[in-house]
Amino acid sequence: MLGGFNTGKDVSLDINTPNGPMRISKIMSFDSKPKTTSTELTPLNGQTDELLVPKGWSGTFEVERTDATLDKWWAQFETDYYNGVSQPAATITETIQEVDGSTSTFRYTNVILKLEGAGKKEGDKTIRQSVTFTARRRLLV
After folding, report:
1. 112: which strand partners?
2. What is the reported pLDDT for 2?
3. What angle do CA 67, 58, 23 make, to 5 degrees?
4. Torsion-angle region of residue 56: left (phi > 0), alpha (psi -120 to 50) or beta?
5. What residues are paired with 38 via a beta bridge?
6. I want to staple 85 with a disulfide (CB 3.0 to 4.6 A). Which of 80, 117, 119, 136 is the partner?
7. Phi, psi at residue 94, to the nearest 5°?
8. Do 104 and 96 form a contact (C-beta atoms < 8 A)?
């Protein structure tokens, strides 16, 4: 918290994959947003209403590579896929320290993770990796 506002330092993530917890030491950013579909309904009186239906969540997190965690996880995912091993979904738990001192915890369920970028390798620069996800629900825990 800074000046009565939440900052990224107020957020922590726990990622649990089918193979156990994914321990990432340097999560640099986390972005999530609800997915929806909407249908406009215009009755004969011309007053348009909108039917909004939740369709899950999607998001991205970026990681500074400090070890092979994401690379090994993706290698295992590929190996399992090609060996016909079913991949159960993951979960992400997001914990936010609120300005008033309380804590809010949200759990993303039925999460499908995708290594979006393994990172650009350049001399004297860190390697930033990115993961995208979709989730069926975001529940208040």
Report:
1. 134
2. 72
3. 25
4. left
5. 52
6. 80
7. -110, 120
8. yes
